[in-house]
Amino acid sequence: MSAVEASWPLLLGQSISVRLQHVGAERQPLMIVDDVLAEPQAMIDEARVANFYVPHHTNYPGINAPIPQSYYLTVIAALRGPIEAAFGLSRSAYISYFGFLALATIGAAEAQPVQKIPHRDSPDPNRLAMVHYLCRGNFGGTGFFRHRATGYESVDASRQAIYESAARRELAERSQAHRYVDARTSNYELIGHSEAVFNRLIVYRSHVLHTALLADSAGSPDPTVGRLTANGFIEAAK
What's the CA gap between 156 and 159, in Å, rounded? Predict the structure, then answer.
């Protein structure tokens, strides 16, 4: 992975705290880490000079940029113990990580239908996803959902065909919808959420149905005022 090399040492926050919640009837783990970095402003400053691009390989409703390598080396190393405990990872597992900076910039009227509903990143329950909120202000966090028609709160390989068939039918009906999903959406039930607290990081299984809780208006592409996050995926290999 190409990465922007940070020119400063990243340190953990002195008041960093970790807690574990469980979401929905499936009791999916949600790890919430507050006050992650001692100087989170350094990540915002790095984003100001990063080369953002439109990601054509994902449905992310905005722009991405490479993340400084020192960021994930610091954060993943520090959180390995809590992650192992929360998600049942082996202490001997080799952990790999891929991540990027993200700014949500596309308004609901311009977004594709698939960008306006909950999704799962991977059918593999052993692959983890994380979001680190680096935005100040009144931004929506991350919501977790139950698909009403199937009752699924997560979609692994055994559920994939059934879920995708139902979701495709519903997407056709929502093709002209001009709103992002929220608690009022008919096809999905909001069963949990994390607020976008500045310098908060969350970790969850990537097969859980989730989405960023976005405003319907277009977001700013300026990292100093927009909905800036550090997003990543963690995989453990024996």
Answer: 5
| Structural domains counted in the chain | 1
Strand, coil or helix: what is 78? helix
Specify the CATH number for the domain of residue 86: 2.60.120
Q: Which domain holds residue 48?
A: 18-58+65-136+144-237
Residue 238's pLDDT band, with cuts at 50, 70 and 90, is: low
Residue 5 included in any domain: no
Question: Burial level of 219, CB count in 10 A (0-12/13-18/19+)?
Answer: buried
For the cut 70, the answer to whether the pLDDT of residue 175 exceeds it is no
Question: The pTM is what?
Answer: 0.92
Rounded Cα distance, 20 and 27, in Å: 11
In a domain, 228, yes or no: yes
233 lies in a domain? Answer: yes
- pLDDT tens for each residue of 117-159: 999 999 999 999 999 999 998 999 999 999 999 999 999 999 9
* Residues sharing a CB contact under 8 Å with residue 40, sequence separation 6 or more, in sequence order: 134, 198, 199
- How large is the average pLDDT for residues 160-166? 96
CA distance 102 to 54: 10
